[in-house]
Amino acid sequence: xxxxxxxxxxAAPAAYAARPSRRFWRLHxxxxxxxxxxxxxxxxxxxxxVFKFGPMIWAIELSFTSYDMVSEPAFVGLDNYRxxxxxPVFGASLFNTLVxxxxxxxxxxxxxxxxxxxINTRVPGxxxxxxxxFLTNLMPIIAVCLVWRFLLHPFGLMxxxxxxxxxxxxxxxxxxxxxxxxxxxxxxxxFAPYFMVVFLAGLLAIPRDYYEAAEIDGATARHRFVHxxxxxxxxxxxxxxxxxxxxxxxIFLMPYIMTGGGPGNATRVLSMLIYETGFSxxxxxxxxxxxxxxxxxxxxxxMGQMRLFxxxxxxxx
Amino acid sequence: xxxxxxLRPPRLSVRLRPLYRWIGLAxxxxxxxxxxxxxxWMTTTSFQAGEKMFQLTTDWIPTxxxxxxxxxxxxxxAFPTFFFNSTVVSVIxxxxxxxxxxxxxxxxxxxxxxxxxxxLLAILCTLxxxxxxxxxxxxxxxxxxxxxxxxxxxxxxxVIEAFGIFLMRQSMLSIPADYIEAARIDGAGELRIxxxxxxxxxxxxxxxxxxxxxRDSWDQFLxxxxxxxxxxxxxxxxxxxxxxxxxxxxxxxxxxxxVLATIPVFLLFAVLQRWVNRGFGLSGLK
Amino acid sequence: xxxxxxxxxxxxxxxxxxLRGLGAAGAGAAALGFGQRAWAQARAPVNISxxxxxxxxxxxxxxxxxxxxxxxxxAVKVDFQFFPFGDLGKKLSVGFATGTxxxxxxxxxxxxxxxxxxxxxxxxxxxxxxxxxxxxxxxDFTQAFVAGATKDGKVYGYPLWFYGFAxxxxxxxxxxxxxxxxRDWPQTWEQLGEVAxxxxxxxxxxxxxxxxxFAMHAAQWTMIQFNPMLIQHGxxxxxxxxxxxxxxxxxxxxxTVRASxxxxxxxxxxxxxxxxxxxxxMDWLRERASMFFCHPIPPAAIASQNQKMLSEGYYxxxxxxxxxxxxxxxxxxxxxxxxxxxAPKEKQEVLHDLYKFMMxxxxxxxxxxxxxxxxxxxxxxxxxxxxxxxxxxxxxKAKDQGVYLPRxxxxxxxxxxxxxxxxxxxxxxxDIKATLDEIAAEVDRATEASxxx
Lengths: 317, 286, 453
What we know:
By secondary structure, chain A is mainly α. Helices cover about 75% and strands about 0% of the residues of chain A. Chain A folds into two domains: about 5-60, no CATH class; about 80-315, Orthogonal Bundle (MetI-like fold), CATH 1.10.3720.10. Chain A has a two-stranded antiparallel ribbon with strand order 1-2. The model of chain A is unreliable at about 1-20 (pLDDT under 50). By secondary structure, chain B is an all-alpha fold. Chain B contains 14 helices and no strands. Chain B has a domain at about 80-240: MetI-like fold (Orthogonal Bundle). Residues about 1-15 of chain B have low confidence and may be disordered. Chain B is globular. By secondary structure, chain C is an alpha/beta fold. Helices cover about 45% and strands about 15% of the residues of chain C. Chain C has helices at about 15-30, 30-40, 60-70, 90-100, 110-115, 135-140, 145, 170-175, 180-185, 190-200, 220-230, 250-265, 280-285, 300-305, 305-310, 345-360, 360-370, 385, 390-400, 410-430, 430-450; strands spanning about 45-55, 75-85, 105-110, 150, 155, 160-165, 165-170, 200-205, 205-215, 290-295, 315-320, 330-340. Chain C has a five-stranded mixed beta sheet with strand order 2-1-3-12-6. In chain C, a hairpin with a 2-residue loop joins strand 8 and strand 9 (about 205-215). The chains are: A mainly alpha, B mainly alpha, C alpha/beta.
């Protein structure tokens, strides 16, 4: 792409060069186009102010108040945050959220990259395998949760598959040690095929000359992967990591349906705590404070996304 | 990006001999089947007798096919209404995203105006503000609008997603500016340019946007749970979770509903599949 | 449709006076239907919203009575909404907060303190309900239950259903292991463990049949099942200062007993259940467990899962075990018909008439919702249909001698904390004392917060 996006667009068309009132006309023309540009973006801006930034600011404001929705919010300073710091349930939920983000991000990235490379071997029918696997990504999450809740019964299908190894019982969802990994695995099952497609697109975009050159140099398959594929795939990997982290940070339904946050607090995540605190205990202020903590976590990954984006823009510019 | 020259498929880093190709295929097939097992289980279970669920054995092929599970399941609670509501909401969300993300994407890809970079960054920032996080204040916003228990309340906060805007913008960046200039010289209005020149070039991205915005809305659980308190506006996930409140509702019928709920998304994907693949940049894949 | 609670202002006083006259005339005629028909002629249409919880028998009965009332009062339209049992309280809280709460609803009794603390309910006019005084109203109900619905001498809830938990036995399985359910039913907690152990069938490490089973799937069930155990062992949820005392010696003892069925007697597997939210008694109904603590189980519920058990009648409820034989009691809980304080006067009056109409035929209620017992003393217990109901004496006894769930404004927080604690103890073998300490600390924090808020 030549030029910054939009730059060409704004230059007056050459056809007008000969006109006498060129300068005036150009200004007028430019302003009109600028206004159109703003008009196109305006609905989205207004929407985000009302449904994203407004609520964000409101959440920050509410987090300094005590508010049960019946009486007016009362300013309590940093009380809510202090309470959260002292609350082991919040501590556990924060920890779980971080574990979940880390676990599912790593697993999703590895599985989806593996799948993409398997598809990319182009054995006959690979394309159909890809499309079949992609179905897990289209199945409603609620159905995913209900199905897996049954499959992960201590004596359910997943345990039966382990029978050849002499294992006849696993308390997948009711054992503190396995509940979180089980939910992470289900998450990967559901989301990896999506990122597989993203990786596949990344792999397809690697020019074949690179491989040919490497082959001529006598590089082994492993070498080619480490020295050609991986470096060229880096932006895609970064993208997948950031997006799956953002996705995991907001997870609610999977633990809500499959474990209810249990056993104990083993799978309680921040989004569940926000819902409970706000709508079951009617402590909107405290719930807002939890939201602010979750913002902060997501901000980290969003900054990552921003860096990636800016780099992409520089490539264009 | 959409009409970027189709990349030649890279010659395989691994050149497989026929025998190995078959082994590779077998391995890939095994992997696929493993991935699809839960979907298969869901489907066959939806035809099983209600008893099966409690025996914790897995009969992959039902000995008797209980087709009546489907009409029976639909007659529980108000599932036809729930599905109708989900459809209305998801269509609103899909259309909203397709329209507004196209507009905004175009505005950001092909126009310059003061602060346009900031707008881009701000939109990027909304990625960290999903509904699960801003649940409480967004609920209060919708409440202040008087939108509790309404389609606009359920769909409203989802009508524009940052992802959609970026998707559209990226796919428009590569459209040559000359096309647009030429149209302007011909006296075409801006909306006409968008409709006649830009949109046709973005079909793959639009297909991706349509499928995923529909699916995201179809999947919503926490938000409808929060804003809906009357049966008339419940969506199917809420019904599915409350399933079995009637005595004797076999859990197999819950799977029937799950299967039914899966079909619309599969269909939409199937219909748009050709474009979606291109939208993902998979044109090179044979 | 969407309920717009406060859309119509109350009618002017003159109109109300006329109506009071008409109401009096109706009462004078002592014909309920007649009096209410007078409403229809005198009034502009009244739209009322009414919420309840979902239950396959109770919800349809309520709906039926409401429809009948609407037929007799064409000017009254009732918008009837229902929610999963566990969601109703949450939905009402949010409804009150946002002004979208219904005009009238069925309140679970453990939520009454929450509503009353915030003045969200309107006091009931007992005369309009057909009682001469608050005293005659109170006398018509089990004392302790109506106490939960009164405050400062005013009544805020019209008690509807009200029932106790019982220990449901599979008598066939008793026979199989050489026990006679009539004679050998467990009367103490030790006996419960011993009997459960005998009833247990295992193949290897896996239970074919669990002798006894505690519900593990929802906080509310954890509370109902554990509440009497705590009280029987001399424990209490709170002391006089409002501090949570679940972690004192009595609490530890009660929880140790709770855990002993699995830990000491090896008679249950807390992780292995096919039960999910709506039907926690599923393991018992499917004969994967021999005993289960449950609310009165309707024949329809048994028939739906196990036709044979119903037709051959090899089940029976008995009282909870006690610390001493014959001294067992369980949790009783129930439901009040209540009126939203913010509902316009006119709607409040119609709701009174609706409630009076609902409660005017309790025999019909029993017929449709048996064996869910009723809170009122008069009007149902002596009818032949009740007397002929299998094991009805046990069911009524459980109701009469039961204890209540804690009446506290932090009920949700308490229930969640206890549920999580029980999960840790039963599923992760956490230390009992340490876990109870954590629960108490969690509840105290919630109490503290509610005081400040």
